[in-house]
């Protein structure tokens, strides 16, 4: 026990920082030209996906309604007699340099047209239109509220041109060769003429096409009235005489 009248001394413990700290180096990218000598990398020239425009009041429009183009006069022959500077000082509205617009207009257009990025959508449209002979497809593009805000016509025979330079784009030759191979595979697989027999072709990404044979429900899809009507209309197949007859 402590003597009466004595005070307990409290001490403040301080944790000293280690003297030697580990120096963590940040990631860096070397810039020596010798490290980057080699074949030219894959490069795709930019293509126009759409446009937006700003009017005289700097109001945003998600299309080209406010775009204006300058067409130079012809180099050969007399040019038009007008002065491009006429009335310019009266109509010109300078941009407010204190307003930082940044990428707001571009980002807004991307949000409004994020469903417009064609890519693999063209593959589905092409496959559904090329085989039946549909010459063109009219596509409607929706805004974030779900309303169609623009239309674009895609000629079926020119759809591939939009993705020709894409490294991961689709190829119509590959599509048609696979279609021909699949039809040949189906023709060699389905050899039994039975309306109750169903051949189910299945495919999973990264796996080959497989086929399984089923009878009746739930895969049978031809109604009996159709099968009976088609069977009655078919002429009987003449019997081929054997050599012994």
Net shape: elongated
**Proportion of beta-strand residues:** 5-15%
> How many strand units?
6
Helix content: 10-25%
The secondary-structure element order is: EEHHHEEHEEH
Biggest beta-sheet profile: 2 strands, antiparallel
Tell me the span between the first and last alpha carbons.
129 Å
Helix/strand structural class: alpha+beta
Residue runs with pLDDT of under 50 for 5 or more positions: 5-26
Sum up the structure in keywords.
single chain; alpha+beta; two-stranded antiparallel sheet; 21% helix; 13% strand; metal-binding; metal ion binding
Write structural notes for this entry.
- It comes from Ictidomys tridecemlineatus.
- One of its GO terms (biological process) is nuclear-transcribed mRNA catabolic process.
- By secondary structure, the protein is of the alpha+beta class.
- It has five helices and six strands.
- The protein has helices at 88-91, 104-112, 120-130, 172-189, 224-233, and strands spanning 53-54, 60-61, 136-142, 148-155, 197-202, 210-215.
- It has a two-stranded antiparallel ribbon. The protein has a two-stranded antiparallel ribbon with strand order 3-4.
- It is elongated, with a radius of gyration of 36 Å.
- The termini are far apart.
Describe the SSE topology.
Blueprint: E1 53-54, E2 60-61, H1 88-91, H2 104-112, H3 120-130, E3 136-142, E4 148-155, H4 172-189, E5 197-202, E6 210-215, H5 224-233
Antiparallel strand pairs: 1-2, 3-4, 5-6
In summary, what is this structure?
The chain is an alpha+beta fold.
